[in-house]
Amino acid sequence: MKNHVLAFLFLCLGSFMFAQSPVGVWKTIDDETGKAKSHVQIYEQNGDLYGKVIKILTPGKENAVCTGCSGEKKNKPINGLVILEKVKKVGKNKWDNGTILDPNKGKTYSVSIELQDANKLKLRGYMGFSLLGRTQYWERVK
């Protein structure tokens, strides 16, 4: 009986501790190659989510710049670049209505984010309708 109670408490505690926020550091996984590309720190500012590249994981690309970007981000180092902006909470584990920048292509897309569990984040970048786009799964860095 004692083991059942402990198991129940552990499950409840696990649910309670489930980080219902994507705030933290995430390893980005390229949806085309399956390889880790960078670490992005997601943070909250004025109620919206933002994400900044804090580490490049691809050898030889550590000093890459965003040549395809426009405006103030043009030719800026990708390491330190804010790529996720103004993403708003729309549900228990969902955020939407913001943008994500692909610094390798210099293109900005609409983005929706869904926290799959405490350590897995689903990001969908799209133009126009959300059916037309790309999905990536990022892993929380522990």
Automatic annotation (TrEMBL):
InterPro entries: DUF2147 (IPR019223). Pfam families: DUF2147. Residues 1-19 form the signal peptide. Residues 24-140 form the DUF2147 domain. Keywords: Signal. It comes from the Bacteria. This is DUF2147 domain-containing protein. It comes from Profundicola chukchiensis.
